[in-house]
Amino acid sequence: MNRKKQFTEGLVTNNPVLVQQIGMCATMAITTTLFNGVGMGLSVLIILTCCNVVVAAIRKIIPEEIRLAIFVVVIAGFVTIVDLLLQAYIPALSAALGVFIPLIVVNCIIIGRAEAFCQKNTVKDSFFDGIFQGLGYTVVLIIMCVFRELVGSGRFGGGLIDVANGFRFTLDGTGGGIQIFPETYGASIMNLPFGGFLTLGLLIGIMQYALKKGEKKKKMEERAEKEAAAMKEVEE
What we know:
Shape: flat
Number of strands: 4
Radius of gyration: 21 Å
Number of domains: 1
Strand order of the largest sheet: 1-4
Number of helices: 8
Helix content: 55-70%
């Protein structure tokens, strides 16, 4: 399978959030700081990749009648592992994400890829599908976090970047971030649930516009090529 095509699908043409429009609940809920977005994105990426590999490896022995139940069991196993690791090593992130880590078990992105891709493709292809789809999800989370945090609080990198004690990255969630402009001038509504709806809707609109424009351009190029070929035949 073409890796470039898989990469493009994961980030753009088949992005799980902006194109497939799945997994949006957590996307809107936790994208208030860069710390949350990066943590959630990487957690989903790891779980998605591991689940893809396992499902693809056992796809030929999974009974058709109980495949979804088996998918959920596999996903739940990896979610539990990631959840326990976060509680042990990055407790601040575990506390910040709260119930949204266990809820990855029913995240449509992971179940959807297992159902639509992994049970029909090899382990290698499924591995890269997990990486690229997870990367596409993570990029959307980061964009939303940066936009909401900047517009809402005038800050960048909250929870992740600590400038008070010298510029450094922190995993305890206490980093104040980089203050771009005074918080009093920020649109505080962007830190509320409405801000998540507004930002996600804006990104989906931009993506759909870009995809339609690209599709229209492609059709015009194909039409021009056909016309050029027809003219060449007439001249010959």
